[in-house]
Design goal:
Helix content: 40-55%
CATH superfamily of the largest domain: Response regulator
Order of helices and strands: EHEHEHEHEHEEEEHHHEE
Radius of gyration: 18 Å
Strand order of the largest sheet: 2-1-3-4-5
Mean pLDDT: 94
Low-confidence stretches: none
Strand content: 15-25%
CATH topology of the largest domain: Rossmann fold
CATH class of the largest domain: Alpha Beta
Distance between the termini: 22 Å
Length: 219
C-alpha cells in the first residue's frame, strides 16, 4: 500500500514514515503544500496524511483543490489546533478523519488502516482469503495458520491484491501502489514478485487474467 505524508515538521514526518515503512507501506513525503498538491495530482496513493499548518499552500487549500479535482484518496488531517470549527472546516473540505497533535503514532496508523479498509470495502481488520490471512496491523501473513516469510515487496503486492481481491488489478496499478515516488519503478519486477508469491502460497493463489492483470485465485 502506498501512503503520502504531508507534514512540515521534518522529524515528525520521518518518524511517521519509518513506522509505516516498517509495516510494509511505500511512503512519499512532502514538507509543504505546494509539493503535496503536485504529488496528489501526479501520483496514486491508497491514503494521505495531511497537516493543516503548511508553508506555501495551507492544508485546507490543498484538501479543497484535491477534492475539486475529483481525487477521492482517503485523507487523514493532522492539526495542532483542535477547535471544533477547524474540525468542521476540514471535514467539510473533504477530510475523512481528523487527529489533533500531539498524538500517538499507533493511533494514526490505526486510523489510516481503517480509511484504507473502508475505501476498499473491507470491514474486518484482518484480510482473509480462504486459508490465507494478512494482518495489516503487524504486516504478518499466515497460510493455514502457518506464518509465511515474505520480502517487503512481496508483502506489498499481496497486501494490495488482498485489499482488492474481488477485482482484477492491472500490472501498472500494482507498480504505482508498491513503490515510493523516488524509487526506480520497473513493471517487469511485478511478475517476479507474483511468481515468488505463487511458489510460497501455492500455484493457484494468484490468477493471471490475460491482457488485464492479476486477482486472487479461488480460495
Amino acid at each position: 500500500m502506498r501512503l503520502l505524508i504531508v507534514e512540515d515538521e521534518e522529524r515528525l514526518a520521518r518518524n511517521l514514515a519509518a513506522m509505516f515503512e516498517s509495516s510494509g507501506y511505500a511512503v512519499d513525503l512532502a514538507f509543504d503544500g505546494e509539493r503535496a498538491e503536485r504529488l496528489l495530482c501526479d501520483e496514486r496513493y491508497d491514503a494521505a496524511i495531511l497537516d493543516l499548518g503548511l508553508p506555501k499552500i495551507d492544508g485546507v487549500t490543498v484538501l479543497r483543490r484535491c477534492r475539486s479535482a475529483s481525487n477521492a484518496v482517503p485523507i487523514l488531517v493532522l492539526s495542532a489546533r483542535g477547535s471544533w470549527h477547524e474540525k468542521v472546516e476540514a471535514i467539510d473540505s473533504g477530510a475523512d478523519d481528523f487527529v489533533v497533535k500531539p498524538f500517538q503514532i499507533e493511533e494514526v496508523m490505526a486510523r489510516v488502516r481503517a480509511l484504507i479498509r473502508r475505501a476498499a470495502g473491507q470491514l474486518q481488520s484482518e484480510l482473509r482469503h480462504g486459508a490465507l490471512t494478512l494482518d495489516p496491523r503487524t504486516a504478518k501473513v499466515t497460510l493455514g495458520g502457518a506464518p509465511m516469510r515474505l520480502t517487503s515487496h512481496e508483502y506489498r503486492v499481496l497486501a494490495y491484491l488482498m485489499h482488492h481481491r474481488d477485482r482484477v488489478v492491472s500490472q501498472i496499478e500494482l507498480t504505482e501502489h508498491i513503490y515510493a515516488q523516488d524509487f526506480e519503478r520497473d513493471s517487469n519486477t511485478v511478475e517476479v514478485f507474483i511468481g515468488r508469491l505463487r511458489r510460497k502460497l501455492g500455484a493457484t493463489s494468484i490468477e493471471t487474467v490475460r491482457g488485464l492483470g492479476y486477482r486472487m485465485g479461488a480460495p
